[in-house]
Amino acid sequence: MATIIVLGAGLVGGVMATDLAKQHEVTSVDISQINLDKLKGIKTICADISDATTLHDLIRDFDLVVGAVPGFMGYKMMKDVIEAGKNIVDISFYSEDPFGLNELAKEKGVVAVMDCGVAPGMGNIIFGYHNLNMEINDYECFVGGLPEKREWPYEYQAVFSPIDVIEEYVRPARFVKNSKMITKEALSDTEIIDFEEIGPLESWNSDGLRSLIKTMAHVPNMIEKTLRYPGCVEYLKVLRESGFFSYDEIEVNGHKIKPIDVTAKLLFPLWEMKEGDKDFTIMRIIIKGTENGNEVTYQYNLLDRYKDDTISMARTTGFTCTAVANLVVNGDYKRIGISPPEYLGEHFNFVKDYLKERGVNYKITKS
Asked: Is the pTM of this model over 0.70?
């Protein structure tokens, strides 16, 4: 049994703390006492971990740190943890280059696994696994977390940090085509894709490849697209093009305000998961290439629904992270430095089985 501290007790962080507590001694930290009060049978600490001194004091005596903070806090939090010489497995999606912390992690002798969610996360582990066993030519990932109940106008609810959701709508999307990196605006190249149990969904370019652009540079074609209910993208484009997602201050009646702050105040209540609301996570990964001299295509399909009073996105994201946390804390994964999840390809079967035990099932076909 190890001692693990989970930073963040939101929708995903709380699920991870509860899962890890089945095998380890877990402490959960959050700035919100309301979030902490939802956790049962777990030691909790209400604190502001944005202060490095506070964070270092909190994590000093733990074997492992698990990060579940909003993206805007993620890079600094990981840097502070590494400086304290503590191993970390993290799910936060931040805009900064995580490899900027690689030398620091090596200097401190720290195992630091980043982006360890569903996508990026499990998708990368699947990619890494096949990269060890075949020559990959094409990688496509379609992924989305959506509410079961479709409500006009957005037909969407935020199952992770809402400010991170808005970032998806403004951050330029990068993908690789014919061995060249291409950058397009987010929400571009929309297409309708049919899913047997869900029906048609709308996909659009998002910046989800992240570390794969660097670590899998030998693969000529790679793309990730986000999934939403059809029609949603048009609303979002209107808001973005009208400036509602802008961080540039404007003057209103003598006051300086950021449009994004107003938008957030208006949209977050509409996007909030409320009592009784349910969600699902859907992902399709297609990997094409050559294996043992033969052309092959692998397809992974995930459809996971709200279960056991737990939202699906928390399960699919959180359990991937806790699986890897167990690999690190048990000494089965010990690569020093920054590790994107594709580096864990050799542990694919462990993570897949760990998820399956918790009801998260990836269906795999080969052709």
From this structure: yes
